[in-house]
Amino acid sequence: MRVVIQRSGDSSVFVDGSVVSSIQHGLVLLIGFTEGDSRKELEWMARKIVNMRIFPDDNGVMNRSLLDVQGSVLAISQFTLYADCKTGNRPSYMKALGHQEAEVLYQEFCLELAKYTNVERGVFGADMEVSISNIGPTTIILER
Fold first, then answer.
1. Which of 80, 100, 107, 138 does the annotation list as catalytic?
2. Do 71 and 27 contact (CB within 8 A), yes or no?
3. More exposed terminus of the chain, fewer Cβ within 10 Å: N or C?
4. pLDDT tier for residue 81 given thresholds of 50, 70 and 90
């Protein structure tokens, strides 16, 4: 499992020109799955993300978590996080988990995150346009 975390202001997901979800303040998560990812990893990743201290305190130091700032999550599935670009000019996506298995894990991961905070979702498998207001910019990659 690989997650790109971006501290965010106003961020939205559009499908066919219409907004399907958005957040005002929190984290945008781009999420990819690979063979061997498990429920235990989803639980660990969700706890890690919501408790990660990447929001500024009153002194401007990244010392507050998503829970501390009462932020939301915009969770977007992105199989291209497992692109292999070692050979040729066209990335290989062989390491990305298959559609059906990845969708199950994505839905379970969103439910796990929802135990802690509000979760808005992209549309799994859709051609999405994602508008991200990356604050900081702060971008962190987690892999388990």
1. 80
2. yes
3. C
4. very high
